[in-house]
Design goal:
This protein has 86 residues and is α/β, with parallel strands linked by helices. The chain contains two helices and five strands.
Length: 86
Amino acid sequence: MVLVFNCDENFNLGAMLRIFCGLCEMGAWGCFDEFNRLDEVSLSAVSLQIQTIQIEMQKNSLTFHLENMELNLVQSMGIFVTMNPK
């Protein structure tokens, strides 16, 4: 399953966290179009969340902690971003 999200300045850290949790638990792919449209603070924090997920996937973890939540990690999950010039 692939879910496509058109990012804008209304996507906040909490919304992105909920999406990442769902992707990890389901093993689905998420494509975040125009990722660069997130505000700078959110972009930085979301990038750290993605990095955490990537590290856990490289370790083949079955569970991990993200923002004080324990999540299952289905190894088929994927995160893809597009960045377009403004």
